[in-house]
Write a structure and sequence with these properties.
By secondary structure, the chain is mainly α.
Length: 115
């Protein structure tokens, strides 16, 4: 028995999404469950619809790996993997947004300093 380590993220990176993956009822069910969990846990900043959209995009971008996960490990591991990918993507975007000042906040600050 030999253990072979592969970087699935790099190996499965493609420029095109395979939307046919969403025809699989397991993928659809898991995507909905992940989106519901994120909508519940991060409801103030990430709504269910946005979480669902991001989840299906992630699944479509890595369709071959999603199929492999389902075949080899089942829906539980797919749920975990999608949750991790969505958390990584969403937290990275949230960190970038946190560094920016909104127009309203900048305007309010400018009005206070001019008074």
């Amino acid at each position: 028995m030999s253990l072979q380590l592969l970087d699935y993220e790099a190996a499965q990176a493609t420029n095109e999404a395979d939307w046919s993956i969403l025809a699989d009822p397991q993928v659809e069910s898991v995507a909905q469950a992940v989106a519901r969990a994120f909508g519940r846990d991060y409801g103030l900043t990430l709504e269910y619809e946005d979480a669902y959209q991001e989840t299906v995009i992630i699944a479509a971008e890595r369709a071959a790996y999603v199929r492999q996960l389902l075949d080899e490990a089942g829906a539980g591991l797919l749920h975990r993997w999608l949750s991790q990918r969505l958390r990584d993507r969403w937290l990275t975007e949230a960190k970038h947004r946190a560094g920016h000042t909104s127009y309203e906040a900048a305007r309010h600050s400018a009005e206070r300093t001019c008074l």
